[in-house]
Amino acid sequence: MAGKLYLLPVPLGEAGGIASIPAANIAIAERLTHFFCEHERTARRMLRRMSATIDLNAIVPHRLDKDSTDGDIRTMLTVLKEHDGAIVSEAGMPCIADPGARLVARAHEAGITVVPLTGPSSLLLALAASGLNGQRFTFHGYLPKGTNERRQALRAIEQDARRTGGAQIAIETPYRNNAFLGDVLAACADNTQLCIAVDIDQPGASIVTRTVSAWRKNRPDLDDRPCVFIIG
């Protein structure tokens, strides 16, 4: 029989966070040997934080990132046909804004059972605390990098928010957060609502919703801090 593919959430940052991981998840991690991850070092560190009893020398990491080929995915499926395994994200929930989704899609095609496990998701935590529309929302992932293209995308997102009333969620690579925020403040109207959720579940965490006009008057420094941006 084929193994199961678990989606194993990890803490959202380096500080604390293990309390947000259910004991049942840790028990599953302790019995697995095959882990699919973007970076082996991060996965090993997260597993050690989860449990001191995991034998890190016995685990078999499989690199799963944006550059993984179809052949790489087929090799991972071969493993899963004989063993249980888990996808481990760099932070939070696997397969959301994460290359693990490719392996999950192929696992379904191969008849392998996919088991999502409960754990922290920065997107849902930010949305829940934003005060914006939690019944209708769109996740846009990463917007274009170029200033003009990104501002054009932000204007279209703002129009969707006004037309539908839905919350519009986006993320950015942490070192580009300040540039992203600058484009939001330049592209969006004064009365548009913007939630900035930064360092969720970490010391100094902040989730604040204000108008674009108010953010222009009190602009935070978000450099190299994990953020979720929500427009409403």
Describe the structure.
This protein is α/β, with parallel strands linked by helices and 232 residues long. The chain folds into 2 domains: 4-116, Tetrapyrrole methylase, N-terminal domain (Cobalt-precorrin-4 Transmethylase, domain 1), CATH 3.40.1010.10; 122-231, Methyltransferase, Cobalt-precorrin-4 Transmethylase, Domain 2, CATH 3.30.950. It has 8 helices and 10 strands. The chain has helices spanning 23-31, 40-50, 70-80, 100-109, 122-130, 147-164, 177-187, 212-217, and strands at 4-8, 34-37, 60-63, 85-88, 113-116, 137-142, 167-171, 193-198, 206-211, 227-231. Strands 3-2-4-1-5 form a 5-stranded parallel β-sheet, with helices on both faces. The chain has a 5-stranded mixed β-sheet with strand order 6-7-10-8-9, sandwiched between helices. Strand 8 (193-198) and strand 9 (206-211) form a beta hairpin.
Structural shape: elongated
Provide the low-confidence segments as ranges: none
Q: Tell me the β content.
A: 15-25%
Supply the CATH superfamily name of the largest domain.
Answer: Tetrapyrrole methylase, N-terminal domain
The third-level CATH topology of the largest domain is Cobalt-precorrin-4 Transmethylase, domain 1
Task: Please report the number of helical segments.
Answer: 8
Cα radius of gyration in angstroms? 19 Å
Largest sheet data: 5 strands, parallel
Q: What is the overall pLDDT average?
A: 95
Tally of strands:
10
Helical content band: 25-40%
Question: Separation of termini?
Answer: 47 Å
Q: Give the strand line-up of the largest sheet.
A: 3-2-4-1-5
Class inferred from helices and paired strands: alpha/beta
- Overall structural domain count: 2
CATH architecture heading of the largest domain: 3-Layer(aba) Sandwich
Helix and strand string, N-terminal first?
EHEHEHEHEHEHEHEEHE
CATH class of the largest domain: Alpha Beta
